[in-house]
C-alpha cells in the first residue's frame, strides 16, 4: 500500500519551518536533486547530505539525475528500517528578504538626494523648450478654440493626454510646470502613463510595478450670478493652481505665499516615497496571499489524508468481513457435503454445485480473489452475503 506523506508547517517570527519525518525526507531526496532542495530550504547541499547520513537515509549517487533526465529508469535504494534515533527533522524554508525589513527612506533624505542630483533641472523655465510629447499633445488640446468646457472659462485635456484643467491664462504656466516635472521623473528612472475611459482620464507616474495617479488643476470657486430674474451659482476659476497626488496617502500642493513651482523637489520626493511604500505594501500582500495559499494547501492535504485513512480502514473492514464470510461459507459447504454423504443423498448435481460454490468463494475471498469468467466484472464489495445462510434443499 502506498504511504501517504504530509507535513506540518508553523510560522515563527515570519520564518516558515517545515517538519519532516525520516521517511518523508527520504522521499524528497529521491524526488528531486540536492541542489534544488538546498535552494528551497535554508541549508547547503553538503549540510543536507550530512543530515541524511545521520538519519541513515540513502541518497542518489552522482550522475543519477542526469540519467533520469535522459529517460533512463533507475532503481531506488530502499530506506533501511533499523534506525532508532529521532525520526523527524525541521528545516527552514528559504525566503527572499522581506520588503518590510528594508528600511524605508525618509522624505527628507529623498528630497535632499533629489536636490543634489546634478542631472536634474528643478527650476521651471520661463519658456517652454523642447517639450515632452505628452506636453505637446496637451498644449494642442488646451489651445484649441473649439474645445468644450464643463465649467465657465476652464480648459481641460481629454482622451489619452496628461490630466490638466486650468483657465486660459494659466495654460502656459501649467504646461511648463508639468513638462519640468515629467523630465525630472524620467531622469530619475520613472515614466508617465496616460489612460482614458470615456470622460475619465488617468495620468500616473510609473515606478517599477507601482502606479501613482497625479493631476494638475486650477481650483474652482462658487460664484453667485444674477441673470436678471433670480440669482444662481456657478463654478468659475479661482486663480489658484494645485498639483495633487491621489491614493491612500494623497497629498496636495497649491499656490499660496510660495508658488507651486517651488515645491517641485517636494513633489518628486513624495512620489518616490509613496512608490517605496506601495512596493512594500504589495510585497507584504503577496506574502500574505502566499501564506494563505500554503495554509489552504496544507489543509487540503490533511483533509485528503484523513479521507484516505478513513477509506483505507473502511476497505480493511470490508476485506475482513469478506474473509470471515468466506471462511464461514467454506465451513458450510464442507458440512453440507459431509451431511449429504452421511445421508447417502450426494448426487452428481450436488457435487457440481458444491464445486462451483467453492470456486465462487475463492473469487470472493480477499486472500485469493480467483478469476471467474462468470463473476468477473462485478464488484466483490457490492456483494451482500446474508448473515445466516439457509441450507439449500435438493
Q: What overall form do the CA principal axes indicate?
A: elongated
Distance between the termini: 45 Å
Portion in strands: 15-25%
Instruction: Give a quick account of the main beta sheet: strands, pairing sense, barrel closure.
Output: 7 strands, mixed
Radius of gyration: 41 Å
Give the ordered list of helices and strands.
Answer: EEHHHHEHHEEHEEEEEHH
The class by helix and strand makeup works out as: alpha+beta
Treating each run of at least 4 consecutive H or I residues as one helix, how many helices? Answer: 9
Please provide a written account of the structure.
The chain has nine helices and ten strands. The chain folds into three domains: 8-94, no CATH class; 126-256, no CATH class; 309-382, no CATH class. Mean pLDDT is 85; it is low at 1-14 and 97-101. The strands form two sheets. Strands 4, 5, 6, 7, 8, 9 and 10 form a seven-stranded mixed β-sheet that branches. A three-stranded antiparallel β-sheet has the order 1-2-3. With 394 residues, the protein is an alpha+beta fold.
Amino acid at each position: 500500500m502506498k504511504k501517504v506523506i504530509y507535513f506540518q508547517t508553523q510560522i515563527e517570527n515570519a520564518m516558515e519551518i517545515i517538519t519532516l519525518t525520516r521517511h518523508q525526507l527520504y522521499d524528497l531526496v529521491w524526488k528531486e536533486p540536492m541542489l534544488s532542495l538546498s535552494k528551497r530550504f535554508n541549508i547547503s547541499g553538503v549540510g543536507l547530505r550530512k543530515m541524511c547520513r545521520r538519519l541513515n537515509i540513502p541518497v542518489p549517487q552522482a550522475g543519477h539525475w542526469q540519467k533520469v533526465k535522459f529517460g533512463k529508469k533507475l532503481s531506488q535504494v530502499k530506506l533501511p528500517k533499523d534506525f532508532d534515533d529521532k525520526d523527524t527533522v525541521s528545516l527552514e524554508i528559504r525566503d527572499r528578504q522581506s520588503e518590510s525589513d528594508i528600511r524605508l527612506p525618509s522624505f527628507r533624505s529623498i528630497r535632499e538626494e533629489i536636490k543634489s542630483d546634478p542631472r536634474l533641472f528643478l527650476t521651471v523655465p520661463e519658456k517652454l523648450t523642447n517639450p515632452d510629447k505628452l506636453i505637446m499633445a496637451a498644449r494642442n488640446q488646451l489651445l484649441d478654440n473649439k474645445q468644450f468646457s464643463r465649467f465657465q472659462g476652464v480648459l481641460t485635456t481629454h482622451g489619452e493626454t496628461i490630466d490638466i484643467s486650468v483657465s486660459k491664462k494659466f495654460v502656459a504656466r501649467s504646461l511648463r510646470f508639468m513638462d519640468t516635472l515629467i523630465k525630472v521623473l524620467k531622469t530619475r528612472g520613472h515614466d508617465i502613463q496616460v489612460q482614458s475611459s470615456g470622460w475619465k482620464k488617468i495620468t500616473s507616474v510609473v515606478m517599477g510595478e507601482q502606479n501613482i495617479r497625479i493631476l494638475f488643476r486650477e481650483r474652482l470657486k462658487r460664484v453667485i450670478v444674477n441673470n436678471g430674474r433670480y440669482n444662481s451659482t456657478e463654478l468659475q476659476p479661482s486663480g489658484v493652481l494645485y498639483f495633487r497626488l491621489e491614493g491612500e496617502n494623497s497629498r496636495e500642493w497649491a499656490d499660496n505665499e510660495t508658488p507651486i513651482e517651488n515645491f517641485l523637489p517636494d513633489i518628486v520626493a513624495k512620489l518616490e516615497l509613496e512608490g517605496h511604500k506601495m512596493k512594500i505594501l504589495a510585497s507584504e500582500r503577496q506574502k500574505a496571499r502566499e501564506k494563505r495559499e500554503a495554509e489552504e494547501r496544507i489543509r487540503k492535504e490533511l483533509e485528503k489524508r484523513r479521507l484516505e485513512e478513513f477509506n483505507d480502514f473502511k476497505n480493511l473492514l470490508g476485506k475482513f468481513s469478506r474473509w470471515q464470510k468466506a471462511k464461514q461459507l467454506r465451513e458450510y459447504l464442507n458440512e453440507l457435503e459431509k451431511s449429504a454423504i452421511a445421508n447417502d443423498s450426494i448426487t452428481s448435481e450436488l457435487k457440481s454445485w458444491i464445486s462451483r460454490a467453492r470456486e465462487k468463494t475463492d473469487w470472493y475471498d480477499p486472500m485469493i480473489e480467483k478469476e471467474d469468467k462468470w463473476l468477473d466484472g462485478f464488484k466483490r464489495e457490492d456483494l451482500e452475503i446474508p448473515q445466516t445462510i439457509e441450507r439449500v434443499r435438493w
